[in-house]
């Protein structure tokens, strides 16, 4: 009897005084990689804790150390009540509501909070930082809720639910995904809860980690999705008898946006060797210009790529930040406003706009396949027996419904602000809300592009005996290999759509193409 293969344990991610790489955030959040604090981080944490201990022992009130919080910061808290102060802070701020957020989001925000603790700017004790690292390594994931963060003073409620677990309170998911009390999960892992000391409660909850974690994950997804959108566009240009001439480098150079040039390079490579394109390239072709959704694909996809690059720059700066209030500077603690989420919130909103527009142009390309007046010889709705069969008619309805949702999700959250904390916190970023709607937008874009790929493959089959390019042909083969059949009588379409969505989300469509043409831009 053969033994099952052991699942390899991912290599640990080192968390130190240097910024985390986006790839490391993804490895911890999605792949379950463990973490370890570097010796340099441990030294930095000890130094900052010594500063906090000295201030806590002194007679002068220090915000976050020996005072209340927010609008209650004017009250000096005596030493014997400071442990209770930290417990009360975390318990009262763990006020989230609504559905549980995804495990990868919670793991990302825990990692990013640990990264800030490792800078030595927050004043936590080494044991507290180590326990947070241990929770991540053991796969213990606190239950964090959809609603509760205003994106200013950081993602207070989400991070408070994580801090609550360090105290052995609240609910968590264990490594197997079971919902258990935090104290039970800690004990099963051989861990003991901490009693928070001066400033530690505030240090654990005052960061932009939730919105930043979701930004990093969205950037990872969007880079794959925008390459896949180029693949889908190439399939549409090809099967709708469009031209590849408009994608020439000399034309793109007239408007030197880097994303546009990259997308156009992809389209040229994707369409190279296409028998379908070659079939109508002669002087007898009476097509003067293709529709905008075909001809302007590099301009739209390229603008989205440039938006992703800008958002990635913001994310890199945020990953290099120590976001807390107050922070330890030298031998003192200083208040600041670095917890405000505006820089992250803006780009989260910007990306939702880009996702909506890329989905919109994808839906328009798909719709052209289905209209016999515009599809240049393809059957209505790509149906096997139009009238008896409806083909992909309702697949486009699904796209249209999603695109409509994406347009609503593109309305920015960051322009809203509801004052809180008795007007002490009178302008907030709503960055968490921007991040949550971007996650829905990324999912919607995935589905829209998948339906275009599905429809483009069916249309390419209907162009036989003309042959697709090697690259787009590889995508058609991929779909057929996973059980999505070619043209024929109507069948249950939803499972095929979901299969295509999985291929797009996993990057399998891009992988199939790159196996033929090499790395895409």
TrEMBL record:
One family name in Pfam for this protein: Lyase_aromatic
Catalytic activity: L-histidine = trans-urocanate + NH4(+)
Record has Lyase as a keyword: yes
Organism superkingdom: Bacteria
Chief localization: cytoplasm
InterPro entries to which the protein is assigned, alphabetical: Aromatic_Lyase, Fumarase/histidase_N, HutH, L-Aspartase-like, Phe/His_NH3-lyase_AS
Subcellular location: Cytoplasm
Keywords: Histidine metabolism, Lyase
Enzyme Commission code(s) on record: 4.3.1.3
Known pathway: Amino-acid degradation; L-histidine degradation into L-glutamate; N-formimidoyl-L-glutamate from L-histidine: step 1/3
Molecular function per GO: histidine ammonia-lyase activity
UniProt similarity note: Belongs to the PAL/histidase family.
Name of the protein: Histidine ammonia-lyase
Taxonomic lineage from the root: Bacteria, Bacillati, Actinomycetota, Actinomycetes, Propionibacteriales
